């Protein structure tokens, strides 16, 4: 694969794997120049770059076999620390993404369909039934009951571009203090609470939720909490099927415990 990427470059570039599960990303270095290379990245990358959400896209090249190589600026920096997810700049970046008409129009032109709460619910139930998990535990049954009972509330939101994997590993803080959100493979059009609900639940103490949401630009109320937990439980049920299908029993049990915790929190709403 290294030699394949070298074909997209002029001579004398040093190409090394960037890590990750897919093996589709590489670093390239020549003198003082550095690039981040990726194979068959989404056309969405160009709009993300233009909006300043990811590092600058330098070029794209179509190879003889039809594959496309994209090259982005490689910027020295680090991933955001978990405690830094509370900062205003994270809320500002998410707000910018969720309110960008350019990003939304590009995903729609690419053929992405908005994912409604009804779509999500039906997909989850179908997958649980296929894996014979629908009645496998009280935690799963309680989660399904909550999703069904609150489906009408989950419908009540304008859909926007969502990243789909809001964790601190995907936020790059450069040495010159620029913040970028990277790894857009899970991009979707959905309720934006799918992004910031995940962030709140994973990184922000409950007593600080209202403050963070004010930074983002929304008010905390009962309806918002119901929508947030709706998507958190939907994620948990989806991951249960995911781990079951891969025979990952330890991760499956961890997800059951997390689902149990969410169900307990629901009782306190």
TrEMBL record:
InterPro entries: Aminoglycoside_PTrfase (IPR002575), CcrZ_PhaseVar_Mediator (IPR052077), Kinase-like_dom_sf (IPR011009). It comes from the Bacteria. Transmembrane segments: none annotated. Residues 18-219 form the Aminoglycoside phosphotransferase domain. This is Phosphotransferase family protein. It comes from Ornithinibacillus xuwenensis.
């Amino acid at each position: 694969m290294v030699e394949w990427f070298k074909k997209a470059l002029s001579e004398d570039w040093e190409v090394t794997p960037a890590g990750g599960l897919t093996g589709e990303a590489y670093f390239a270095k020549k003198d003082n120049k550095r690039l981040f290379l990726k194979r068959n990245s989404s056309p969405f990358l160009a709009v993300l770059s233009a909006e300043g959400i990811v590092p600058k896209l330098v070029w794209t090249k179509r190879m003889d076999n039809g594959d496309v190589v994209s090259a982005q600026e490689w910027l020295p920096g680090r991933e955001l620390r978990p405690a830094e997810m509370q900062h205003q700049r994270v809320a500002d970046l998410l707000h910018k993404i969720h309110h960008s008409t350019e990003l939304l129009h590009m995903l729609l032109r690419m053929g992405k369909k908005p994912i409604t709460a009804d779509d999500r619910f039906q997909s989850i139930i179908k997958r649980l039934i296929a894996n014979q998990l629908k009645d496998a535990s009280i935690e799963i049954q309680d989660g399904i009951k909550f999703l069904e009972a609150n489906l009408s509330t989950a419908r009540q939101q304008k859909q926007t571009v969502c990243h789909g994997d809001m964790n601190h590993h995907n936020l790059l803080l450069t040495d010159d203090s620029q913040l970028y959100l990277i790894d857009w493979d899970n991009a979707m059009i959905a309720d934006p609470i799918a992004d910031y609900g995940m962030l709140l639940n994973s990184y922000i103490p409950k007593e600080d939720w209202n403050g963070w949401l004010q930074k983002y630009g929304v008010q905390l109320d009962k309806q918002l909490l119901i929508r947030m937990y709706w998507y958190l439980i939907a994620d948990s049920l989806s991951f249960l099927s995911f781990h079951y299908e891969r025979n990952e029993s330890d991760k499956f049990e961890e997800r059951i415990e997390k689902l149990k915790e969410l169900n307990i929190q629901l009782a306190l709403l």
